Amino acid sequence: MSARLDSQYRTRAVTSLGDSEIDVLVIGGGVVGSGAALDAASRGLTVTLVEARDFAAGTSSRSSKLIHGGLRYLEQLDFWLVREALKERGLLLHRLAPHLVRPVPFLLPLRHRVWERAYIGAGVALYDTIGGARAVPMHRHVSRTRALESAPALRPDALTGAIRYFDAQIDDARHTMMLARTAAQHGATVLTRAKVTGLLRDGERVVGANVTDLETGLVHTVRARRVISATGVWTDEMNRMTGVEFPFHVRMSKGVHILVPRERLDLDTGLIMRTEKSVLFVIPWGRHWIIGTTDTDWSLDRDHPAASNADVQYLLDHVNQVLRQPLTRDDIVGTYAGLRPLLSGASADTATLSREHAVAEPAPGLFVIAGGKYTTYRVMAADAVDAAVEGLGRGVAPSVTERLPILGAVGYHELAADLDSLAQRRGLPRATVERLLGRYGSAITDLFDLIADKPELADPLTGAPDYLGAEAVYAVTHEGALHLDDVLTRRTRISIEAADRGLAAAPAVAWLVGARLGWDAAATDREITRYRDRVHAELAANQAADDESANAARLVAVA
Fold it and tell me: Does position 296 have pLDDT exceeding 50, yes or no?
């Protein structure tokens, strides 16, 4: 099956909705929903995935961009969760998504000379071994002198020494989208801007859903033998739609990140620091550093969580405690906020709630999965499908996703090994081809085809010179982007990497993609205006004093 999610694909997919009963309807296009669609389709089941907004539009595009076991979970004695996550880290690095996941070093500064090195060193040593085979280099202890050589930005009095260890990094939104495309490649129908507005019942049993195409307003009836809800922080809304009490609820924890230019911090490594509640990361991200995160309760708008002035100041205050030259607000080029779906518990502190996941069948035929963390999405997806297919009445193969590379993985290593000649043959700078390989893997050949057909697509984008015109076009011809925000925020990261949040790039990108999406001049202007309003609303929210006022400022623009 084709993994090309263009406008023609969507038209065919929408037209086919309701043609016949399917095996599994997946609600939610985040990483778990996309993973569940792939898991089910690769077992030979007929699958449709519907997402109300865009792939990874919620939590799955707003994480810390890390694939990790969670060092702090060791301190909470959650060895099982760490072991599971580290196993998944190894699979993603070496088998499932080597083009999208890569090792990244971190320096953990120590403040106390003896007990802290022994205590934390033992934990990091366990972290290196608990996941089984070593997927990344082992940790090592370093002196203060050696630590400052790799991290001159640190104040000498901020550490007595350090531990250097490795975790892994991912572009979460691109990975989620690639999962959805891989599911389509295996026969699943995947649709964005398709919202479930009601469940179908046969007595108490859930037998499908009414799905509204938000692009046209038409309602389609989708009948399914099993329905899987992977809706994250929207799980309680599914609870209300179902009309029955779920065995668990989800609490939302807001995590805020800021981006600063790479040259602003003289570091050869990422940083991880303990705070009074959790940990703070400084993470290398192309030409930038990502600094995060916060961990605070959130009960306001789920679609558009907002970073307030207090959130931004919290991050600056904590990172500046260890820097020779403190960061200021003028250094910030990007900000984003996301919501973690935590299984609710007795604690009033979201930092202590469980990151484990749960699967339930609150009504016959409806299976709900919630909780968990990005790194363990594949296990969560397999657990949800395992529960759903039990009792289907025919033999269903076990999950194969542990051995199933996602789109772009097969052939990636061979292309990377031939990088110099590949760049020479295509007439592109080596650094450009290397960056593209890290975003598309072996699917880079599709971009080369676009450029061969229209050589001007090899030109950098106006207002975002790190990206090519071909990448914007590819977002709508292959990756399912339907709106300008999809391209600037998730298919690329222009919205958080450009100091103007992508305002200068928006017109050029809109005209490039509009030609492929059938936009006229009025539609193109509407997309640009909507994106501009969103940016201004987010910037206003960043100046607001607290969550309530930040939420109000962000909701001025609903896009």
Answer: yes
